[in-house]
Amino acid sequence: MSALSLAVRDSTTMLRRNLLHARRYPSLTLNLLLTPVMLLLLFVYIFGDVMSAGIGDGGADRSEYIAYLVPGILLMTIGSTVIGAAVSVATDMNEGIIARFRTMAIHRGSVFIGHVVGSVLQVLASLVLVGAVGVAIGFRSTDATALEWLAAFGLLALFALALTWIAVGMGMASPNAEAAGNMAMPLILLPLISSAFIPADAMPGWFQPIAEYQPFTPAIETLRGLLLGTEIGHNGWLAVAWCLGLAALGYYWSTSQFNRDSK
Q1: 242 pLDDT tier (thresholds 50, 70, 90)
Q2: How far lies 138's CA from each of 29, 40, 66, 73, in Å?
Q3: How many Cα atoms within 13 Å fall on the side-chain side of residue 8?
Q4: pLDDT of amino acid 247
Q5: How would residue 59 be classed by pLDDT, with cut points 50, 70 and 90?
Q6: Per-residue pLDDT tens for 93-119?
Q7: Cβ distance 191 to 71 under 8 Å?
Q8: What sign results for the dihedral spanned by CA atoms 47, 49, 52, 53?
Q9: CA-wise closest residue to 247 among 188, 167, 173
Q10: Which stretch of 20-24, 128-132, 238-242 has the lowest confidence by average pLDDT?
Q11: Is the CB of residue 185 less than 8 Å from the CB of residue 80?
Q12: Distance CA 143, CA 226 (A)
């Protein structure tokens, strides 16, 4: 078999292993998925009228706030779901299975590929579920074209890939699964201080740079623009730049730790 065929075979085996683990132990994914769903329902049905009046022209319109909120919740779903990848990698490291894989005649990169692809697939499934909840409570995107929907899906997948590589690096750097979960908490906290719930320009002046200069805000604004027809501006290329930079950083961080620990 060629080197490429071996890499594909081993990566497929590792992907099947990670998906099997996710199916046998769904509680972790469900617990992480519960956070964005509960926040979506909380902000729509408890704070919806007040929040819509605050960001609109003074009139309460919950449907407009649902349209504003759902893109941010979708990005938050990515941040919360990829924590499972950090916990899974840390568990493999702590239990010694990674060390055993190193002694076997398998493609070295297949271990990471299995975790990354498996996590991205779980994220996409989570996005479908959260999106279905959003549609059920009134979210609509009637003006988006097929090309804009395709671009929105591509952005979500790219963002999921970038954060998954960061989560894998966190898992490699953590001594155990609990520490990995704690290290990955910023992936849930950052969306809370982004433009997910209110516009950044409605925040206090000293706080606006914190909301603006982070990866979630440009990604959220780009997704809103694609789905709702709002102005995207420079957020599009900023979101792509953040995704590529985080993916490269996470890949380098993960592989450098993997190679260092194998010496």
Answers
A1: very high
A2: 25, 12, 7, 14
A3: 5
A4: 95
A5: low
A6: 887 777 777 777 677 778 888 889 988
A7: no
A8: negative
A9: 167
A10: 20-24
A11: no
A12: 9
Q: Write down the pLDDT at residue 236.
A: 94
Q: Name the burial class of residue 182, with classes exposed (0-12), middle (13-18) and buried (19+) by CB atoms within 10 angstroms of its CB.
A: middle
User: What would the DSSP string read from start to end of the chain?
Assistant: --HHHHHHHHHHHHHHHHHHHHHH-THHHHHHHHHHHHHHHHHHHTSHHHHHHHHTTS---HHHHHHHHHHHHHHHHHHHHTHHHHHHHHHHHHHTHHHHHHHSSS-THHHHHHHHHHHHHHHHHHHHHHHHHHHHTT----S--HHHHHHHHHHHHHHHHHHHHHHHHHHHH-SSHHHHHHHTTHHHHHHHTTTTSS-GGGS-TTTHHHHHSSSHHHHHHHHHHHHH----TTHHHHHHHHHHHHHHHHHHHHHHHHHHHT-
- Answer yes or no: are the C-beta atoms of 20 and 67 closer than 8 Å: no
Cα separation, 164 vs 176, in Å, equals: 18
How far, in Å, CA of 5 to CA of 16, rounded?
16
Cβ atoms of 32 and 185 within 8 Å: the answer is no
Gap between the terminal Cα atoms of the chain: 28
What is the phi/psi pair of residue 207, to 5°? -95, -20
Q: At residue 11, does pLDDT exceed 70?
A: yes
Look at the block and give the residue holding tokens 């890939």: 161
What pLDDT is stored for residue 61 in this prediction?
A: 66
Residue 70 has pLDDT above 60, yes or no: yes
Looking at residue 262, what is its pLDDT?
54
